[in-house]
């Protein structure tokens, strides 16, 4: 099987079971510039894109198991979209060389595993994947991800970057409510997401012009209405970006960044949590 064939399998198969089937070990990469890339993934009804609003439960309601399970449902949706979008990227960017294609593939395999782990955990907690509507927010960004560089800026530096904050925050909140299993899961995912964002930074360092700062490069690759606000959670943990290897300038600029989306209704932050990071609204 070729890598392209496997990516078609991810995008065109409709059930969760098929999408979660890992690739064969002897997969080979044969780039082909004449492929037609699906613009949306195939999904069975239960997993279909939905325009219905489905928000992550508020932190003050995490004492209830169902709410913690629904938060995991929310994260699982992000993993499903990420897995599909890495398949979409591998199909879309045939010309980037074997090393970068393999980096995309490594991330795809992790996202697939993350999705499987989240689904298993929510099932243990009494929730099925697809019980709640699945938004398709990441898929809405594909028109802005026409090149490998813009894909990297949006997917890896922004959305996966923000996931470092979410994984850290929710890992702590699960722990606070005695849900050690879910907390451990967030920790595994956090560590692997660090590697994903690092792969994004590798693309930046490969492409930017000598003296350009990482922040300037990044800012040029994204376009309004997509802003750096998407690259962090409502709670920002700068040390997670240090682990990735971002410059201090990048970390500070991201921390200070505000836009018109920055005024969501404030979470009630548990006392214990207030010193953990920077609340950025
Ligand atoms: Fe992931
Ligand atoms: Fe990721």
Gap from first CA to last CA: 46 Å
Mean pLDDT: 94
Structural category: mainly alpha
The tally of helices reads: 9
Q: Which descriptor suits the 3D outline?
A: globular
Order of helices and strands: HHHHHHHEHHE
Distinct ligands, ions and cofactors found in the model: fe (ii) ion
Q: Helicity, in percent?
A: 40-55%
Radius of gyration: 18 Å
Oligomer class: single chain
Portion in strands? under 5%
Fold and architecture overview:
The chain is an all-alpha fold and 281 residues long. The protein has helices spanning 3-12, 16-19, 65-92, 98-124, 148-176, 180-207, 214-221, 238-244, 248-256; strands at 235-236, 278-279. It contains nine helices and two strands; from the N terminus they run αααααααβααβ. Strands 1-2 form a two-stranded antiparallel ribbon. Helix 3 (65-92) runs antiparallel to helix 4 (98-124), helix 4 packs antiparallel against helix 6 and helix 5 packs antiparallel against helix 6 (180-207). The N and C termini lie far apart (46 Å). One fe (ii) ion binds next to helix 4 and helix 6. The site of one fe (ii) ion has 6 residues, from helix 4 and helix 6.
Give a brief description.
This protein has 281 residues and is mostly helical. The protein has nine helices and two strands.
Which descriptors would you attach to this protein?
single chain; 281 residues; mainly alpha; two-stranded antiparallel sheet; 9 helices; binds fe (ii) ion
